[in-house]
Amino acid sequence: MAEALAKIPDVEIDPDGTFKYILLRVKVKDGDAQKDVVRGTKSAEYHNHIFEKVNPALEALGMECKCLGGGKIEHNKEDRKIRVFGESTAFGKADHSVSVEKLKTVFSDYEVTWSDDKK
């Protein structure tokens, strides 16, 4: 099952724009292996919409999910910048520093920053 966990992408976000995101802890059911992943999309009106979409897909792979918090991502593809900020009313504020480290692994040629700003 650890192989299945390794195949789950660390980051899945929209290619451009400002949108809600959540930080999830994905764990192998009945196991110890786990990792944190970032998911974000413009199609989500609320943070829980992201969780409601992602959770069943990961459960089908034999994983358990827990939302660690949320916020917003401003993804500027043209300028190669990503800004993480804000919080989720439903899940609270994610640890943006953890989210930024995940984003940097995928967007290594971007400037990736975070703040506690609301907007």
Automatic annotation (TrEMBL):
InterPro entries in UniProt: Janus, Janus_sf
Pfam families: Ocnus
Chain segments annotated as coiled-coil in the UniProt record: none
Domain of life: Eukaryota
Family: Belongs to the janus family.
Name of this protein: Uncharacterized protein
